[in-house]
Amino acid sequence: MPSLHRAVPRAALSSLLLASSSGLLTPALAQAPEGATTLSEISVAGSGGAPNPAERAGSLTVPSVAAQRAAVNATVGSVAFVDAASFRNRYANTVRDVLKDVPGVFVQERYGQEMRLSVRGSGIARGFHVRGIELLQDGIPLNLADGSGDFYQIDPLSLRSVEVYKGGNALTFGATTLGGAVNFVTPTAYTAFAPNILRIDGGSFNTIREHFQFSRIAGPADFLISGTLTNSDGYRDHETQRTRNFNANLGYRLAPGVETRFFVGFYDTDQKLPGTLSLFDALNNPRIANPTAISGNQSRKVTTERIANRTSFELDVGRLDIDSWAIHKNLYHPIFQVIDQDGWTYGISPHWAGSFDIAGYRNDLILGLRAFAGVNQALQFANVSGLRGAQTLNALQSASNYEAYAENRFWFLPDVALMTGAKLFSSNRTYSNKGGLPASPTARFGNVTYDGINPKLGLLWQPLPDIQVFGDITRSRDVPDFSDLAQTNMLGTTFVPLEAQRAWTYEAGTRGRIDRLAWDVTLYRAEIRDALINFTINPGLNIPAATFNAPRTRHQGVEAAVTLDLAQDLTGLGDRLSLTQIWTHNDFRFVGDPVFGNNRIAGVPVDVLRTVLGYAHPSGFTLAPSVDWVPEGAFADHANTLKAPGYALFNVQASLDFANGVSLFVDARNLTDARYISDIAVVTNAATVPGGPLAFYPGNGRSVFGGVRASF
Q1: Strand partners of residue 162
Q2: Residue 65: what pLDDT?
Q3: Domains identified in the chain and CATH numbers
Q4: Concatenated DSSP letters for 357-386?
Q5: Which of 303, 426, 507, 711 is most solvent-facing, going by the fewest CB within 10 Å?
C-alpha cells in the first residue's frame, strides 16, 4: 500500500499555482500514488526564474515540493500552492509579497511587516494580530494558544513553499475557522534550491537586506540554517524597521521508515509605528507620522524563540506524524500605553494519514489530535515617551485547547469522491486582572469555555484528466482571543465574555487547464452568527480595537485566477508571453442588524484585481509588468458614511539568472507615485467624529528595489 503525504487521493490533483507575479505557466507532472490517474500540473516560472529542474525527492518529515503541491490540490475545496521560486527574484519582504497573487487572500500593508490578513472576511476590520486564520510553519502551529498570531517570524527568504487552505478546507491540519490556514514551509537540505545561498538586496527608503542559507546531507543526518537581516527607514516618518530572523532544522533518519526533525527559530523585530492619519493627510501628506506616535515614541519590539519537532513513521498502511512545539514570545509595545507581555505556548499533535480499500473502492483517511495551551503575563504602564511609567495593569491570560478531527475521501466512482469530516473541540480562556482600573469589579476575572463540533461534507468530480469540479459545506467556529476578550479603553482593561463566532460556508468551484488556458475559480457564501466585529475606539491614539458580536452577517464572494498563454516561441527560442488576471470579490454585510441594518462591513474593498503580463526567456530573463487595481476603496466605518477612494498601481519586475548560479533582479513599484489608502482602522460611525477620524494608513509611494543572489 503506497504511503501518502496527507492522503493524496486516487486522482492526484493538478498544481494550479496561479500565484506568481508574472503568471507564466509551464506544464509539469504532479506526483501521484502508484496507479493513479494524474492531472497534468501547472506551475509558475514567474519572475523568480524557472523552477529548479533537479528538484529533490524530499524526506519523510518534509516531502518534496511536488509532493507538497499534490497534497494541497488533493483537497476537496478551494486551496492554493505557492512555490518560493515564484517570488525569490523580487523584493519579497512581507506576507503580502508572498500571497498577493492568491485569489481570495486579502493582505494589506500598514508599515514595515505589519499586515492585515483576511481570507473570506476572517478577522475583518482587525488591524493587529491575526484572528480566524491559523498560521503554521512546516505544518506546526505558529499561533499562540488563544488563537492570535503575528507575521514577524515569517521570513519570505527562508521559505520553500506556501500552502493556503481557505475556510474549512484546512481541516487537514485540524483548523476549522472561517478563514482557514496558511502553512509556510521552510526548506530542508533535501528541498533547498542550492546547498549554499548568499543574497543582498536593497533600494528605496534606505533599505538593505542580507540573507544566507547553508545546508548539508551527511548519511542519515541533514541540516539547514538560514538568516536574514533587514534595515529600512520606511516610507513614512517614524517607520524605521530592524529585523533579525534565523531558522534552522536538523533531520535524522532513525531507521528505515522512521525520521525525526527539529525546527529552531529566533525572530527579533524592532518596528517604529507612524500611526494613522486623517483621510486628507493620508492622501496629501502621506509621509508624515501621527504626532501622537512621535510623542509617545510608539513602537513594537517583539522577540520570539521557537522550537518544534516532527517525528514521522512510515507504517504498513499510511504514515504517522507526531508534532510537538514550544514558543516563547516577549512583546514591548508602547502605544497609548506601554503594553509589556511575556508568554509561552506549547503543544503536541499526533496525526495519521493513509489509504486503503473498502469493498474494492479507494478510501483516503486523515485522523488527528491536538492539545496545546499557553500562559501570558500581560502588563501595562503609562507611556512616557516610549518608556514605562506608572503601572496600570497586571493580568494573567491562560488558554488551553483540546481537539480531535477526521477527514475521509471515499472514491465511489473512478472520477468522483465523497468527502466527509468533523472536528470536536474544547477551548478554555481564563483571565485574571490583578491590578489596574477595570470599569467594574466583576470584570477583573473571567473564565469561559467554548466547545462544539464542526462537520464537513463535499464532492469532487474530475470529468477530464485536466479539469476538476468541487463543492462542499463546512461548519466553522472562531473562538475569541484575548485581544477580543480583554478590551482596553481609557478607563482600563475589562474582560468581555464574547460568544464564539459560528458559520456555515457553502462553496463551489473548478480548476484546470485546456490547452493554453488555466483557471482556478471558487464561489462561496458564509452565513455567520455572532460574528466577531472590530472597531477602533480612537485610532489617533492607537488604542487596540474593541470587539462585539454581530447577531447575523453574510460573507460571500468570488475567488478567481485565470491565465492565458498569449504566445510561445516569439524569438524561436522557447520564450513565452502570458497574461494572468486575479480577481477577489468581497460582499460582506450585516443582516438586519439593530444598529447597522444591512450595511457593508467596513475595512475591505468590494473588488481587488491584479493583472500581470509576463514574459520569460529560456536564457533566464523574465519581465513582468503588473497593475493592482481597487476600483472602489473600503468603507472606513460600519455606518457606511465615509469611504476611501479607489486606486491603481503600476509595477514592473525583471530578473536575470546566469548559468553560474548568480541572479540579478529589479522590483519597481507604484511607478506613477499614486496616493492611495492601504489600510483602515475601522470606526463605528465616522460622521460622529469631529473633523473626521484619524483612521487611515497611506500606501507606499514610488519605490525601486534590486538585488543579487549567488547559489552554489
Answers
A1: 82, 184
A2: 95
A3: 11-711 (2.40.170.20)
A4: EETTEEEEEEEEEEEEEEEEEEEEEEEETT
A5: 426
